[in-house]
Amino acid sequence: MKLTAWISAICLLGISPLAAASLTKTSDSNWLTGADEKTRAERLEHYLGGFSSAMQDTGLRYAHVKQAIADGNWDLAQYHWGKIATAIENGLMKRPARRANAEAIFLNRAWEPLAAALKEKNGESIAKAFQQARQACMACHVAEKVPFMNDQPLFRTP
Ligand code: HEC
């Protein structure tokens, strides 16, 4: 891995997970119902995570889309493709600073063509739109300074 990739990986972690201990350290197993209102909200926010939990969901569904397209199961691909937009939106609610790139590169550009192609069940345009969507996922990783995300089996062409 290149030095710049390491630096961005370290920056991504931000505050160390241990710094959240003041929020997570409790002797009460009723960690929500036993807490005051503010702590409860803070714990939920912390537990639901930031952009990475939305991306984990996105990655899983993307793998399902890829497989469903390979299987010619357009309905299943359409199902997961729809959920991917929701997953990314949920991530943007938690990390609004990522919205500009997410919309410009993916949501307002690459998402719709694949959704439309799947609806039409046109194999040729599905294959083309999927490759464009894949490129958009990877372009956003570069734009958001996590280029190392792209070097994994998920993004290798079948
Ligand atoms: C806003 C631009 C953006 C778009 C669009 C985007 N990603 Fe990401 N992705 C990120 C960022 C930023 C991270 C690192 C998140 C973090 O660590 O908080 C990430 C992380 C990931 C991860 C690792 C998640 C984990 O923690 O396990 C996967 C997998 C992933 N993206 C897949 C995808 C796929 C597939 C697409 C396209 C369908 C996509 N991403 C579209 C920005 C984007």
**Radius of gyration in whole Å, from Cα?**
18 Å
Annotation, overall tally of beta strands: 0
Overall residue-averaged pLDDT value: 91
Structural class by secondary-structure content: mainly alpha
**CATH homologous superfamily title of the domain at 51-155:** Oxygen-evolving enhancer protein 3 (PsbQ), four-helix up-down bundle
Name the poorly predicted regions.
none
How would the global form be characterised? elongated
What separation lies between the terminal Cα atoms? 24 Å
Relative helix content: 55-70%
CATH topology of the domain at 51-155, which one?
Answer: Four Helix Bundle (Hemerythrin (Met), subunit A)
Task: Report the major sheet.
Answer: none
Q: Architecture of the domain at 51-155 in CATH? A: Up-down Bundle
> Helical region count?
8
Ligands and ions found: heme C
Q: H/E series, N to C?
A: HHHHHHHH
**Beta-strand proportion:** under 5%
CATH class of the domain at 51-155 equals Mainly Alpha
Question: Can you describe what's shown?
Answer:
The chain is mainly alpha-helical and 158 residues long. The protein has a domain at 51-155: Up-down Bundle (Four Helix Bundle (Hemerythrin (Met), subunit A)), CATH 1.20.120.290. Helices cover 69% and strands 0% of the residues. It is built from 8 helices and no strands. Helix 4 (51-71) runs antiparallel to helix 5 and helix 6 packs antiparallel against helix 8. The chain starts with a helix and ends in a 15-residue tail after the last helix. The relative contact order is 0.10. The mean pLDDT is 91.
